[in-house]
Specification:
The protein is built from 21 helices and no strands. By secondary structure, it is mostly helical. It has one domain: Sodium/glucose cotransporter. Helix 3 crosses helix 15, helix 7 packs antiparallel against helix 15 and helix 17 runs parallel beside helix 20. The chain is globular.
Length: 494
């Protein structure tokens, strides 16, 4: 396949713009707090769109439309679960986590917050939570690199191996240089690009297939059960898809956006912006996969790439239906989704290694300049490991994401949620919650018990462990005082 010059030029301009933003952010990055949390300076719009874009990775434009294309509307339960979970996360966790991290040693990372919140002098809580971040995020980073490789492979006819490096290079560049501010500013641009692509594409597909009535008739002719929300589903299957929503409470890259807001007063407005963006994007994603059924059944000669890999449905529709310049912009939206999430994950891994290992255990007296450069080196290290994990061309984006999402949702979700709403939680309760959640996910996934998504038992067992183990001890007076002060601050300013 020949490289489409307009599409290539669009990609190059887009990537250059993202790297330029990285260099602009570089000038505002003076210390580790700036590199990891942007100096807690994000306004409500950047907080909202950055949280949305960092959450919706390549699976939004590849994994989910592909699943809808293959199975019809029965796969959309996942979108419903995500919307409910994200809303509850904004409602119960966002504002409280913002004030709790400030009152607990001005914590920059989740392990940092857990250590301060539960007065963990042993360092055990910090080490275990940092290890969980590194294990599951490296898998998550690999999913982003696979999505980027698929995009470059199918757009420019590259080999998978070349596409792997091409897709990862730009993201590594601006994350390395600009840190959190670069990631958040680029996320805002990328979120705008993603919503444009996901609202425009289904409309053009509808017009190309002859309008709503013709499209729905074509989908029904292909298989009437495409409209059935319960097709080939079981109670456990629906609960598993809805269970994705539980993952929000424990995703470090999303929680970091809440911690970085300029104040708790920004959170309510950010919630409204973020949820509107999310509902429109997920609706567009479902529509792309669903209307794609009609388009490719009417044009079977063009369906070969999608038949071979259904995760390419959005890519192929963009290439077929749009002028190459517009297609370049739309395909850049996939790159935006991949880059926004991958950059956040690289940064969270880097901050865990730098703040929670290097600074805490190896170099307590390290200067801020040294810590920023160690953070940059860790970005490169984690990226190289993730590229190695992504090297298998058989990888599927949604499969890699689901495992990492479950790992974080079960290991950190209950700990974060309960720590900001229950004053009597203890260090041992937190430790038990992280360990039980992470181990349950790994064991449940291995044995595939009942076909139930591993996040659900992981979340339930971790929550029970936190409650019962916390009941065996009691929090210190300092923990109770800081919790009460943070809660009062939250209620005063929300």
């Amino acid at each position: 396949m020949s490289v489409s010059n307009p599409t290539l030029i669009t990609f190059v301009i887009y990537i250059a713009a993202m790297v330029l933003i990285g260099f602009m952010a570089y000038r505002s990055t003076n210390n580790l707090s700036d590199y990891i949390l942007g100096g807690r300076s994000l306004g409500s719009v950047v907080t909202a769109l950055s949280a949305g874009a960092s959450d919706m990775s390549g699976w939004l434009l590849m994994g989910l439309p592909g699943a809808i294309y293959m199975s019809g509307l029965s796969e959309s339960w996942i979108a419903i679960g995500l919307i409910v979970g994200a809303y509850l996360n904004w409602l119960f966790v966002a504002g409280r986590l913002r004030v709790q991290t400030e009152h607990n040693g001005d914590a920059l990372t989740l392990p940092d917050y857990f250590s301060s919140r539960f007065e963990d002098k042993s360092g055990l809580l910090r080490i275990i939570s940092a290890i969980v971040i590194l294990v599951f995020f490296t898998i998550y980073c690999a999913s982003g690199i696979v999505a980027g490789a698929r995009l470059f492979e199918s757009t420019f006819g590259m080999s998978y191996e070349t596409a792997l490096w091409a897709g990862a290079a730009a993201t590594i560049a601006y994350t390395f240089v600009g840190g959190f501010l670069a990631v958040s500013w680029t996320d805002t641009v990328q979120a705008t690009l993603m919503i444009f692509a996901l609202l425009l594409t289904p409309i053009i597909v509808l017009l190309a297939t002859g309008g709503i009535d013709t499209t729905f008739l074509a989908i029904e002719a292909q298989d009437p059960s495409n409209f059935d929300m319960l097709k080939n589903t079981t109670f456990i299957g629906i609960i598993s898809l809805m269970g994705w929503g539980l993952g929000y409470f424990g995703q470090p890259h999303i929680l970091a956006r809440f911690m970085a807001a300029d104040s708790v007063k920004s959170i309510a407005n950010a919630r409204r912006i973020s949820m509107t963006w999310m509902i429109l994007c997920l609706g567009g994603t479902v529509a792309v996969g669903f209307f794609g059924i009609a388009y490719f059944s009417a044009n079977p000669g063009l369906a070969a790439p999608v038949t071979e890999n259904h995760e390419r449905v959005f890519i192929e529709l963009a290439k077929i239906l749009f002028n190459p310049w517009v297609a370049g912009v739309l395909l850049s939206a996939i790159l935006a989704a991949v880059m926004s999430t991958l950059s956040c994950q690289l940064l969270v891994c880097s901050s865990a290694l730098t703040e929670d290992f290097y600074k805490t255990f190896l170099r307590k007296t390290a200067s801020q300049v040294e810590l920023v450069w160690v953070g940059r080196a860790m970005v490169l290290l984690v990226a190289l490991i993730a590229i190695a994990l992504a090297a298998n061309p058989e990888n599927r984006v949604l499969g890699l994401v689901s495992y990492a999402w479950a790992g974080f949702g079960a290991a950190f979700g209950p700990v974060v949620l309960i720590s900001v709403i229950w004053k009597d939680m203890t260090r041992d309760g937190a430790l038990a919650g992280i360990l039980v959640g992470a181990i349950t996910v790994i064991v449940w996934k291995h044995f595939n018990v009942l076909g139930l998504y591993e996040i659900i038992p992981g979340f339930i067992f971790a929550s029970l462990a936190i409650y019962f183990v916390s009941k065996m001890g009691e929090p210190t007076r300092g923990m109770l005082q800081r919790f009460a002060a943070a809660e009062a601050d939250f209620r005063l300013n929300k």
